[in-house]
Amino acid sequence: MARPWSRLGLVAGGGDLPVHVAEAARADGRLGAVVALKGFADPARFDSASERRLGEIGAILKDFEAAGCDAICLVGQVARPDFSQLRPDLKTISILPRIMAAATRGDDALLRAVIAVFEEEGLIVAGADEIAGELTAKPGYLGAVRPDEAARADALRALHVAGVIGSEDIGQGAVACAGLVLAVEAQEGTDAMLARVAALPETLRGTPQARRGVLAKRPKPVQERRIDLPVIGVSTVEGAARAGLAGLVVPAGGALILGADAVARAAGAHGLFVWITDGDDGPA
Fold first, then answer.
1. 160 Cβ partners below 8 Å, 6+ apart?
2. How far is it, in rounded angstroms, from Cα 46 to Cα 123?
3. Residue after which a domain boundary falls, among 76, 107, 131
4. Which parts of the sequence belong to the LpxI C-terminal domain (predicted)?
5. 239: pLDDT confidence band, cut at 50, 70 and 90?
6. Are residues 190 and 121 part of one domain?
7. Beta carbons of 48 and 34 less than 8 angstroms apart
């Protein structure tokens, strides 16, 4: 059973998700402090935020201690650092060898090592879905469009492949069309993967006039879920639309939806479906 906490320190990376989480924690009366990571998050997007580099873990801990925080949430897009350019403070220097060692074993190992650092300081690590539960994907569809039989088969194929690469700590997404795997996600991220699909010959993928293929995102089976749950938003729908895809699929409880109403409207405008499957992870 998770320990209770009362005041949150938010470490914000890029994207819209940190803003949603900060707003949810503030509405709940539990937001203590926000640290915007330099080069990834804009501190101006938050009501009040300090700005710290990735290598300033000691300073981040002091910010949260001063704000009376007993919990931390690490959320948003952060690229793997170039450790030679990190400019670490003394706290970061002390834990850097094990962080670097973990980084060689994959993203999930790296995230677990980072979590351990904050837990050793007595902070409870909370997931974005715990704080902003309204963002968690619920079973069903967003919008009126539904997948046909071929699209459902592609959706299940893409979910399966995303699970396979996730078990090797590679990525969270895959695209399948007519049973053929068109792309899998690694370090480039979903937007870049969809751009690669859009550049493929139209004989392999759909078009805006004849949509085919499905993007699936799901957590890695090995994943530490308190950090880095898959996220879809309007930009994901737009990228899938440009790639000629018929729709998107994510597992219920295994993804965060940024603005469900806006996602539904965007999907409807392009004629895409957004399917949220039953179960924690979808088909394995």
1. 283, 284
2. 22
3. 131
4. 139-275
5. very high
6. no
7. yes
pLDDT, residue 282, reads: 44
pLDDT tens per residue, range 182-195: 999 988 889 999 99
The confidence score (pLDDT) of residue 147 equals 97
Q: Which of 249, 266, 256 is nearest to 231 (CA)?
A: 256
Domain that holds residue 146: 136-277
Among the three residues 106, 131, 156, which one is the final residue of a domain in this structure? 131
| d(C-alpha 126, C-alpha 178), whole Å | 39
Beta bridge partners of 31: 8
Q: Is residue 284 part of a domain?
A: no
Domain identity same for 244 and 263? yes
* Exposed / middle / buried, residue 85 (Cβ in 10 Å: 0-12, 13-18, 19+): exposed
- CA torsion through residues 120, 122, 123, 126, sign: positive
Q: What is the pLDDT of residues 80-133, one digit of tens each?
A: 888 888 899 999 999 999 999 998 888 888 889 999 999 999 999 999 999 999
Q: Please, where are the H alpha helices in 71-230? A: 90-103, 107-120, 128-131, 149-167, 190-198
